Design the sequence.
């Protein structure tokens, strides 16, 4: 089990580094940041908060927070990202719940979503982990207005090397969330 966790973290790290390498130049319209840079992004604050999506008997709660993380592996920079935690209930059945981990940090690797290095106006891109299906998905989070965001899942990829992903996905491909009072 320990090896699968290490592989899972390694996969997340590889994906995140790929995002950093390919999206930072696009986002900030410049060359790669200098070693030791700290890329803060106050525009990510509009995504922060508690969100809820209700569709029939499905209820999805999501907590998004901002964290300034260290990106090593040759880049050795810091950057603001959005970390997301999800709770999904189908009727009375709890399918996914990692909102309880929302006080953890990026280093704890308990988040479902990491996004924000690729930001175009009111849209951020990243990855969403779907543990029950052993996959991760490209994700776009789109700010529709001050009280509404849309989460769109893209193509899925195998989460852990050596595992067989299950068909489909746990969450719907498109979800509309309303801001909850904190």
Sequence:
């Amino acid at each position: 089990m320990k090896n699968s966790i290490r592989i899972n973290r390694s996969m997340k790290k590889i994906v995140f580094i790929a995002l950093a390498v390919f999206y930072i130049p696009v986002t900030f319209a410049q060359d790669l940041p200098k070693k030791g840079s700290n890329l803060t992004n106050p525009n990510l604050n509009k995504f922060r908060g508690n969100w809820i999506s209700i569709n029939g008997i499905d209820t999805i709660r999501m907590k998004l927070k901002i964290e300034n993380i260290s990106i090593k592996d040759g880049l050795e920079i810091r950057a603001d990202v959005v970390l997301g935690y999800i709770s999904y209930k189908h009727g009375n059945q709890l399918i996914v719940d990692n909102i309880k981990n929302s006080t953890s940090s990026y280093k704890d690797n308990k988040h479902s979503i990491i996004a924000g290095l690729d930001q175009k106006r009111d849209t951020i891109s990243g990855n969403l982990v779907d543990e029950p299906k052993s996959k991760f998905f490209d994700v776009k989070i789109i700010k529709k207005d001050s009280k509404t965001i849309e989460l769109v899942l893209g193509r899925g990829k195998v989460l852990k090397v050596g595992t067989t992903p299950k068909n489909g996905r746990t969450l719907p491909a498109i979800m509309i969330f309303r801001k909850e009072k904190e």
